């Protein structure tokens, strides 16, 4: 039970419907759509579209989308892959990078930009599962773009860290800087070009984005910087429905977004710790953090070796899912016994450049949706007429030829984005997500362990300090107890203080027995969970 004499927030309880996002205005927009007769799909899309204006460094129409949708009476959720592909003519550019000795795609290079998938995903999900229509769903975002969105405190703090990136591109600087400075908390930032773009999408659907003047603006912008994208790359984009990655933990059914998403890495971590009596460990103690760290290092190493687009001819036909899970189960006894696996060389880092939204409506339909432009402010490339800020998702490709996830024209990169759902085999029980770049799968496993092993409500589980192990280093949030870092060092970890909070989270539990919804939203962000 929460100590009410200490700072914190309570879980939110409601009867009929609930939304949880990283910004209060987005949560209110979601609830408004529900009260106007919309369902969870309408509300989630409306909230995500608004977040592209409220948190432009995190998401927008220039990014990607994943979604899980589960209705009462359904054993498993629908899953939609709204991620984009590399340009068909990107081969010479990759050869150039390899000839220059590059080991990664630079964030601001046009090669970092994959075709944005979010708009197509919103439109498809709205048409297939929504009630209100895309025009009504996008109306709040259009109004906010016209009037100006107030900058929230956490957003302002993040914005100020990226002035140098924003200054590199003239259009980006004009769009996102006030002179040479980032806007302060409370500043209202209108986005006139984005208002026009969203209005066109609301009127004419995804064709307005992937064809016509918006597509021409996107292609001209990228080609003007030496890029190789074509109108055909945009016109030919399509997301698709797919089966979620599925597993079990403590008798619950856990669903995650499948490859090319890293969602199954959360399942791999859970598989490695299920043989441990996690309930006997303090959920914020050194043994718990050490266990998650060792399992995470092993799982991330498997991810970096095997995860790929299922269409990748150098990877497995399931994107590496079977290989990763088989290896995780093989390693489980070693992890339970205290072993450490050689880590991936990838260094930890990232503050959560993603937005996650969860909504449950009065019909107990749960939506788990994650959207992102990847790095903070994506590639830093903004289109002058449409205001589209491009993603940097192409930096997720590997540059070593002949390996899974290698940068290949027309393929989708390995994705950090993850959305989660938990069920009981007959219906949804919790819609959840943890933002945070590389941390996302680790965050999913940590959240589930703290709830299912320790009985914490979603808010309490979200509030606890986090750690992230990658590249042989364990990052620990500065909000942890002062004794925790030396204790973790004593267990053999190389530990350092995290420079920024590790991600952000939202979750909604459906308590079927009592007929209530229980929500939590991360205090590391500006948002909240609200219901009625």
From TrEMBL:
<dbReference type="InterPro" id="IPR043138">
    <property type="entry name" value="GGT_lsub"/>
</dbReference>
<dbReference type="InterPro" id="IPR043137">
    <property type="entry name" value="GGT_ssub_C"/>
</dbReference>
<dbReference type="InterPro" id="IPR029055">
    <property type="entry name" value="Ntn_hydrolases_N"/>
</dbReference>
<dbReference type="InterPro" id="IPR052896">
    <property type="entry name" value="GGT-like_enzyme"/>
</dbReference>
<protein>
    <submittedName>
        <fullName>Gamma-glutamyltransferase</fullName>
        <ecNumber>2.3.2.2</ecNumber>
    </submittedName>
</protein>
<keyword id="KW-0808">Transferase</keyword>
<dbReference type="Pfam" id="PF01019">
    <property type="entry name" value="G_glu_transpept"/>
</dbReference>
<keyword id="KW-0012">Acyltransferase</keyword>
<dbReference type="GO" id="GO:0103068">
    <property type="term" value="F:leukotriene C4 gamma-glutamyl transferase activity"/>
</dbReference>
